[in-house]
Amino acid sequence: MGRGVFLPLNGKEVQEVLRDVWKRFLQKPLKALLVPIESESFISPGLIGTPDGIERTRALAPYIPINTARLLQMLTKLEPPSEPIGVVARPCEIRAAIELRKLKQVAEKNLLFLAIDCLGTYSLRLYQEKLKEGKIEEVQVDQSLIRDACRVCTYPVAPWSDLRVSYLGIEEGIFLEALTEEGERLLKESGFELEEKKFEKRKRVLSELLEKRTLNENELLHHQQEELKGYEALLREFSVCIKCHNCMTVCPLCYCKECFFNSPSFEFEADRFLNLLQLKGVLRLPTEILLFHLTRMAHMALSCVGCGMCQEGCPQGIRVFELFKAVAKKVQEIFQYEPGRDPKEVLPLITFREEELKEVESRLHDL
After folding, report:
1. Do residues 15 and 171 lie in contact, with contact meaning Cβ atoms separated by under 8 Å?
2. Fewer CB in a 10 Å sphere around the end CB: N or C, the chain?
3. Predicted TM-score of the model (pTM)
4. pLDDT tens-digit map of 243-259
């Protein structure tokens, strides 16, 4: 599998073993950890600076309130931390952070990514119900109840991070796999001894999971083509949109400091609306709904990591994720680009090759 540290459970829960690891990281190498914590019986991302707060960490809780990449942009965009911070996050969050790094929105200095395996997360309402019932299972997540985005996610394991925290398909323990020199240094400075390890069962478990997720993805894309294809279908789906911009606010890849749709360009005098009314006979308010969604789709489709936070944040139940997933899939295939796969892989939209337009034209023709 790789080079790292195997930690047996010895009768403990995976979450308990992880807390022991976080304590060791905070004793010397790291100044702080950005990790999901329990806050008033609920889960939210938080910064932990001392081993005393480790008992509140819930890295495996099957709920994601906000994509951590969004927080990293807030924390590091102006200036990187002066001391190292460990970022404990799920694969979709790591991938989004990598994309934001390429766009100069997240710092590279003094951030170490610690990617945890992910079986998926529940919606807010379902997670709250399970909390009340006391039925939260963190390692064996019910695959029939996870969010739509998680059902079709083909990245239960992060393709890149400094350290990969693996437990899927590993019996009686977890494996801390160092993928970079920084990750290896973190383990050594924490007093761990590294070794080469292979886990054959893990390969089988991940292969079976990916096979199911791929089937789910194909079903979702087929459903999108059947029900949400074309101008009229889009108008129907977005007809309940109230233009609250929640989907944009929670999206980790919508990074503009000033959004065009929040600018004076969309501040009209009352007579402007009356003029539009004369042309149409009936004027639906708020206006420019479809323009907003299509513009946002074009803006970030190439870097969309499919975290599904857009749909989670929609108060109207619009299938935002399903639409964005279908568009992002095609756009990424055209450019042969997978967001968050490798921090060294150049983002196509910030580079230029003279022959690339002919290549893209050819691929579009094949579609």
Report:
1. no
2. C
3. 0.90
4. 999 999 999 998 877 77
